[in-house]
UniProtKB/TrEMBL annotation:
<comment type="subunit">
    <text>Homodimer.</text>
</comment>
<dbReference type="InterPro" id="IPR014732">
    <property type="entry name" value="OMPdecase"/>
</dbReference>
<feature type="binding site">
    <location>
        <position position="210"/>
    </location>
    <ligand>
        <name>substrate</name>
    </ligand>
</feature>
<dbReference type="InterPro" id="IPR018089">
    <property type="entry name" value="OMPdecase_AS"/>
</dbReference>
<feature type="binding site">
    <location>
        <position position="35"/>
    </location>
    <ligand>
        <name>substrate</name>
    </ligand>
</feature>
<feature type="active site" description="For OMPdecase activity">
    <location>
        <position position="64"/>
    </location>
</feature>
<dbReference type="GO" id="GO:0004590">
    <property type="term" value="F:orotidine-5'-phosphate decarboxylase activity"/>
</dbReference>
<feature type="binding site">
    <location>
        <position position="121"/>
    </location>
    <ligand>
        <name>substrate</name>
    </ligand>
</feature>
<dbReference type="InterPro" id="IPR013785">
    <property type="entry name" value="Aldolase_TIM"/>
</dbReference>
<dbReference type="GO" id="GO:0006207">
    <property type="term" value="P:'de novo' pyrimidine nucleobase biosynthetic process"/>
</dbReference>
<feature type="active site" description="For OMPdecase activity">
    <location>
        <position position="67"/>
    </location>
</feature>
<feature type="active site" description="For OMPdecase activity">
    <location>
        <position position="62"/>
    </location>
</feature>
<feature type="active site" description="Proton donor">
    <location>
        <position position="64"/>
    </location>
</feature>
<feature type="binding site">
    <location>
        <position position="190"/>
    </location>
    <ligand>
        <name>substrate</name>
    </ligand>
</feature>
<comment type="similarity">
    <text>Belongs to the OMP decarboxylase family. Type 1 subfamily.</text>
</comment>
<protein>
    <recommendedName>
        <fullName>Orotidine 5'-phosphate decarboxylase</fullName>
        <ecNumber>4.1.1.23</ecNumber>
    </recommendedName>
</protein>
<dbReference type="GO" id="GO:0005829">
    <property type="term" value="C:cytosol"/>
</dbReference>
Amino acid sequence: MDNNKCGLIVALDLPSLDGARDFLDRLDKATKYVKVGPRLYALGGVAFAKEIIDRGYELFLDLKLHDIPNTVASAVEPLSELGLWALTIHTSGGYEMMARSVAMRDKTGSRMKLLGITVLTSLGGELWSDVHPGCDMQQALVGRAETAQRAGLDGIVCSPLDLELLKGRAEKLLRVVPGIRAKKVSTEDQTRVATAKDAAEAGASYIVVGRPILEAADPIAAAKDILKTLGEVSH
Ligand SMILES: O=c1ccn([C@@H]2O[C@H](COP(=O)(O)O)[C@@H](O)[C@H]2O)c(=O)[nH]1
């Protein structure tokens, strides 16, 4: 990817493996970054991950691992050997969990990026305070991002609305940004959203887009429209 441009990662949140295969055929690497989450991984596992990589895509496996350090690091070991572009773990698992995952990835010699989920883009307002009473979201976000950098992660996943706050902080980390919505459309289960253009201008390294592409009347045209928008923004 051009270092000055924001990349597009398409979230393959489709109901079936064949649906995902069909979509990848039609996408024809207009963007080479695609994301698989728990559903497709549950359906297709390692074999399907390898199939996507063999098709020439850069695969982002978004499993959001969150457990004690030994358990997460021991899962990172075999996942490092798949040829993934990136894997997610949760920053809220703490420094030790992240640092041991990085050490395990490095031990395998893998170049897979480890990305830390900071605060989910769906968690805003009361949804946040219900489960983090008395805790300021912005302080948590900065603490998690800075701990991720200290632990050696390659990037963080955050909301487009967090990018401004993170300016000048945890600067070595990639910003991978879901929660992308056009203006005046339903945000569905996302609460902390912005447009692709606003996210790119605010410093996203990559944006992650699922339903706005997958549920568009012409998904490939929707992906290409977003790529065109991103191509017009430098940061
Ligand atoms: O904080 C997070 C972390 C990950 N995601 C994932 O990104 C996509 C977004 O899908 P949309 O359909 O564009 O809302 C989805 O796969 C999530 O699991 C996120 O949304 N927020």
